[in-house]
Amino acid sequence: MAHIKTGGTTKGNRDSISKRLGVKLYGGQVAIPGNIIIRQKGTKYHPGNGVKMGKDFTLFAVKEGTVNFKNRLNRKIVEVI
């Protein structure tokens, strides 16, 4: 039998890496094509004019302009004007 208890000292000391989700460009900020506006899981925000959605639900700008957030039909819409 072992005299030193070492096996379980770090058990449960694991955590997942954060995914850095959230808004990257806020309303009023200037976006150029390709700029990521929001990283999200699911469609918390929906794309509007000048914005497209990637396969991982990332919203990004497709034209140059100012980022604008608005609500339409109980949906949060992001657009580049």
From TrEMBL:
<dbReference type="Pfam" id="PF01016">
    <property type="entry name" value="Ribosomal_L27"/>
</dbReference>
<dbReference type="GO" id="GO:0005840">
    <property type="term" value="C:ribosome"/>
</dbReference>
<dbReference type="GO" id="GO:0003735">
    <property type="term" value="F:structural constituent of ribosome"/>
</dbReference>
<protein>
    <recommendedName>
        <fullName>Large ribosomal subunit protein bL27</fullName>
    </recommendedName>
</protein>
<dbReference type="InterPro" id="IPR001684">
    <property type="entry name" value="Ribosomal_bL27"/>
</dbReference>
<dbReference type="GO" id="GO:1990904">
    <property type="term" value="C:ribonucleoprotein complex"/>
</dbReference>
<dbReference type="GO" id="GO:0006412">
    <property type="term" value="P:translation"/>
</dbReference>
<keyword id="KW-0687">Ribonucleoprotein</keyword>
<keyword id="KW-0689">Ribosomal protein</keyword>
<comment type="similarity">
    <text>Belongs to the bacterial ribosomal protein bL27 family.</text>
</comment>
